[in-house]
Amino acid sequence: xxxxxLFLLLLNFDAFLTGLAFGFAGVRITNAxxxxxxxxxxxxxxxxxxxxxxxxxxxxxxxxxxxxxxFLLLFTLYLIAKYCGKExxxxxxxLWRRPARLDNNADKQISFGEAAWLGVALAVDSLGGGxxxxxxxxxxxxxxxxxxxxxxxxxxxxxxxxxxxxISCSIDK
Length: 173
Prior knowledge:
By secondary structure, this protein is mainly alpha-helical. The protein is built from 7 helices and no strands. The chain has one domain. α1 crosses α7, α3 runs parallel beside α5 and α3 packs antiparallel against α7.
C-alpha cells in the first residue's frame, strides 16, 4: 500500500507544481475546479489501468511493462516540449510558464471550462502510469479514487499556499 501511495503521489506531483504556478500568478483554483481536475485524472487513470489489466492477458508482462515505460517516457518528453517550453503552442502551451494564459476571462479564477482543459492536461500522464499499474494491481477504480484524493489535495493545497503568499506579500508593501 505504501508503494501505491508513493506512486500515486509522484504521478500527481504535476498537480502540486500547477497549483503553485497558478497561485503565484494570482489565479485561484476553486474547490469545484479542483474536483473536476482530480476527477478527470481519476477517470484517465482508471481507464488506463483497466486497459493495462486487459492487455496483460494478451501480452507477456515483460513486453507490456517495457511498452508502458517507453510510452510514458516518450509522452512525458513530448508534454515537456509542448506545454512547458518557450515555443509551446495551443491553448495549453507554456502552461507553467504563463498559467494566467489559461484564465480566458481574466477574472483570476479558474472556471469550469478552464478547469476541464487543465484537468485533461494534468491527466494525460496517467495513461502511461495507469497502463503499468494496471498490470500489477486489480481494482483500478480504487487506485483511481485514491489518485483523485492525492490530486485534489496537492492542487488545492499548493494553489492556496502560493495564492496566500502572494496576497500577504502584496499587503506588506
